[in-house]
Design brief:
Helix content is 67%, strand content 0%. The chain is mainly α.
Length: 206
Amino acid sequence: MGWNLRFVATALAAAWLVVGALPAAAGLEEGVKAYREGDYAKALEEFLPLAATGDAAVQNQVAAMYYTGQGTPQDFAKAAEWFRKAAASGNADGQYCLGKLYYYGQGVAQNFDEAAKLLTEAGLAGKGGAQYLLATLYLYGKGVSKNAVKAYFWSILAVEAPDQAAEDKPAAVALRDQIESGLAPRQVESIQTMARNWAPRKKKGN
């Protein structure tokens, strides 16, 4: 499907997995049940008050529903609004999804500077999709200074990221190999060592 088109499935799956792991709260169980039964309008009705209290996981879920048009007319701007709320609390899923909206200009004006900031935060937390997009930003100098070394570093992390979807891995591998072909062997070895020793930053707001 490609990185842009897969955004819907990626965002929704990431948010839903977190919501499903939350402890019981008023309206949450009802919302989860309604969602699983395909009653998206009722699910959204139950989720919105919880999202308004500042729960980042539910905010991501609400954002994903606005993005896909589940239980509500599709509204990219509303999706961006809710992802922004989650991102503001340091939630890595929200940062990744909002960063991706800025990257593609969906619901917000395309802005590679903002995309780079948000994707960096999500990438440092270990989000493979964010790491992939960061690699492209550094490769082409969009929102950041062009830097093949940093592009290669992020591309390696993207390939190895535990949350990287199987269908996205070939694109990440291709990007890594493309960048590697333009580097000196000594650079490649050094960056690979750095990537092997890298560990994701502890996530906040998740």
